[in-house]
Design goal:
Layout (H helix, E strand, L loop, with lengths): L1 E3 L3 E4 L7 E5 L16 H5 L8 H12 L3 E4 L21 E2 L2 E2 L8 H23 L3 E8 L15 E4 L5 H12 L4 E3 L10 H6 L7 E7 L6 H22 L2
Parallel strand pairs: 3-4, 3-7, 7-10, 8-9
Antiparallel strand pairs: 1-2, 2-4, 5-6, 8-10
Protein name: N-formylglutamate amidohydrolase
InterPro entries: N-FG_amidohydro (IPR007709), UCP029730 (IPR011227)
Organism: Croceicoccus marinus
């Protein structure tokens, strides 16, 4: 089953009390009535979305019955993984790229059109699903264009704020695959964890906030491989969290 609105897209039907997936930056779609003033290549790069995560989420929903709630608009239109009052909610620059169409943007208009419908629908979906575990899926670039000398060696990272138990299990399980795993890397969930702070920690829902390096999920074969790994780690973590 696929459902779609302007702000969100869903794949699959949640198993009540099971595992679900959310992904804020799964799309680089820009509405036809909006002009950001950047090139197609820039929009297709990591500044426009989290490369690869939509395809991984689709595979997880279809092959592993982990239903997904996905953002359906580019993070450059509005960043669904920020608080409403965050200074970069509608970025005017990203990794050295100026976003002219966001200068003087109608902040409240975009909140009403995209941000609030996305999060309101997610909360209703989660309440109905009563999940035992949420997978929050993102990807990161191996190096920022604005700081090319600073390489990011982790293949996958786990982010968390106050709830670290699930992340600790997942880090160990990913390492069993022979991966280089980041503990609150490439950035800390204690500083940036907006969606899981709101929909996970605020409700006592266990979660895994997973960051995959995007050069590892750019083709179908690697997307399938990572979907299988993430599903396995999520299911094993879910079992380990049960009393």
């Amino acid at each position: 089953m696929i459902e779609e609105t302007e702000s969100w897209r869903r794949i699959g039907t949640p198993v009540r009390g099971g595992i679900v997936l959310v992904s804020d930056h799964a799309s680089n779609r820009v509405p036809d009535d909006m002009e950001l003033g950047i090139t197609r290549a820039q929009l297709d790069d990591h500044i426009g979305w989290d490369i690869g995560v939509g395809a991984v989420a689709d595979r997880m929903a279809r092959r592993h019955q982990i239903a997904a709630h996905l953002g359906n608009v580019s993070r450059l239109v509005i960043d669904l993984h920020r608080e409403e009052d965050h200074s970069r909610l509608i970025p005017q620059e990203s990794d050295g790229v100026l976003i002219p169409g966001n200068i003087g943007a109608d902040r409240e208009g975009r909140l009403k059109r995209f941000y609030r419908p996305y999060h309101d629908a997610m909360e209703e979906w989660l309440e109905d699903a009563a999940p035992s575990l949420i997978v929050s899926l993102h990807s990161f670039t191996p190096a920022m264009a604005s700081d090319p000398g600073k390489k990011r060696p982790w293949q996958v990272g786990l982010l968390y704020n106050e709830q670290g138990d699930a992340a600790a299990h997942a880090m160990r399980l990913f390492r069993e695959y022979g991966l280089t795993v980041g503990d609150n890397e490439p950035y800390s969930g204690k500083q940036l964890n907006a969606t899981m702070n709101r929909h996970g920690e605020a409700h006592g829902r266990p979660y895994l906030a997973i960051e995959v390096r995007n050069d590892l999920i750019r083709n179908e074969r690697e997307q399938a491989r990572w979907a299988d790994m993430i599903a396995d780690v999520a299911k094993r973590t879910d079992e380990l969290l049960k009393p």
